[in-house]
Amino acid sequence: MKHVWIAALFALSGLAQAAGPQVEMWKTPTCGCCKDWVRHLEDNGFDVKVHDVADTSAQRAALGIPSELGSCHSARVEGYALEGHVPASEIKRLLKERPKAVGLAVPGMPLGAPGMDDPAYRGVKHEYRVLLVDKSGSYRNYRPYPGNQTDRNAAR
Ligand SMILES: [Cu+2]
Question: Could you tell me the distance, in angstroms and rounded to a whole number, from the CA of residue 127 to the centre of ligand 1?
Answer without folding.
Answer: 15
